[in-house]
Specification:
mainly alpha
C-alpha cells in the first residue's frame, strides 16, 4: 500500500524499520552480558533497558562500573551521553506532530535508530510508521535479549569476540551516510567525528559527543564568514535540498 500523499509505500517503511529494529535489538545480548559481568543484578540490568532504553548510555554506565569507576561519575557520563536524545526530540516533535497525550510515551523511544529512520522518510505518514515500528521492535527485542544475555552471561562468554556491541552504531552510520547530500553536511559530519574521537581519551564518557555537536554551528559560522567576504555564490553542491 502506498501512502495517500504519494510518499514511500507503507510496506517498504515497515520493512526498513523492522530491519533496523532487529539488527540493533540483538545488541541487547551484549549489554546483558556486560552488565551482569560488571556486577549488576538481573533486576538492575533489566531495569536499565526498560527505563533508560538508550544503548550508548547503558553501555557507558556498565563499562565505567566494570572498570572500577565511581557510580556517580558513571551515571553522570551516561547522562551526558543521553542528552543528545533531547535534541532529537526537538526535531521529531515537528515531524511526528503527535497528540499531547501520546508524546510522553513516544519520548521513551526517541533514540538514535528511531530518529534516523524517521528522518529518512519523505512524508508525515511514513515518519510516524517508521518511528513506531522501529521503536516498538527495538524496545521489545532489546529488553528480551538483555534478559537472555544477563541470564546466559557465563555461557555466551566474551561479547567482543561476537561483535554484538558494534551492531547498533554500524546500523546508525549506514542510515546516516546517505543523508549527507551536500558538502556542508559532509564537512559537519567529518568535523564531528574528528572532535568526538579526538577528545574521547581526554574527556569523561559522554562529553565528547556533546562537544562534537559544536561542529554544526562552527561550520555554519565559518560558511557565513566566507560568504560575507566573497558574496553569495550559488553552488548546487552546497545548497541543501528541500524536504
Amino acid at each position: 500500500m502506498r501512502s495517500e500523499d504519494g510518499g514511500k509505500p507503507d510496506a517498504a517503511v515497515v520493512r526498513d524499520a523492522l530491519g533496523v529494529g532487529v539488527a540493533v535489538g540483538l545488541s541487547g545480548f551484549a549489554f546483558g552480558v556486560t552488565s551482569a559481568g560488571s556486577g549488576l543484578t538481573l533486576l538492575q540490568t533489566c531495569a536499565l533497558s526498560l527505563l533508560v532504553f538508550t544503548g550508548a548510555s547503558q553501555f557507558a554506565l556498565v563499562g565505567a562500573l566494570a572498570g572500577g569507576g565511581n557510580p556517580f561519575t558513571a551515571a553522570a557520563g551516561a547522562f551526558f551521553l543521553g542528552v543528545r536524545n533531547a535534541f532529537y526530540g526537538l526535531r521529531l516533535s515537528q515531524l511526528l506532530a503527535l497528540p499531547r497525550a501520546v508524546r510522553p510515551f513516544a519520548a521513551q523511544w526517541v533514540i538514535d535508530e528511531t530518529t534516523a529512520v524517521a528522518l529518512a522518510q519523505p512524508t508525515r505518514r511514513s515518519v510516524r510508521i517508521g518511528f513506531t515500528v522501529t521503536g516498538l521492535t527495538l524496545y521489545v527485542l532489546w529488553n528480551l535479549t538483555t534478559l537472555l544475555g544477563a541470564l546466559g552471561a557465563d555461557a555466551i562468554g566474551d561479547t567482543d569476540a561476537w561483535g554484538l556491541d558494534a551492531a547498533g552504531p554500524a546500523v546508525f552510520l549506514a542510515l546516516l551516510a546517505p543523508m549527507l547530500r551536500t558538502t556542508m553536511e559532509r564537512v559537519v559530519a567529518g568535523l564531528a567525528v574528528v572532535l568526538g574521537l579526538g577528545l574521547l581519551p581526554v574527556l569523561p564518557a559522554g562529553v565528547p559527543v556533546l562537544v562534537a555537536a559544536l561542529a554544526a554551528p562552527a561550520v555554519l559560522w565559518a560558511e557565513g564568514r566566507r560568504r560575507a567576504r566573497t558574496g553569495p555564490v550559488e553552488d548546487d553542491d552546497t545548497v541543501g535540498e528541500g524536504r
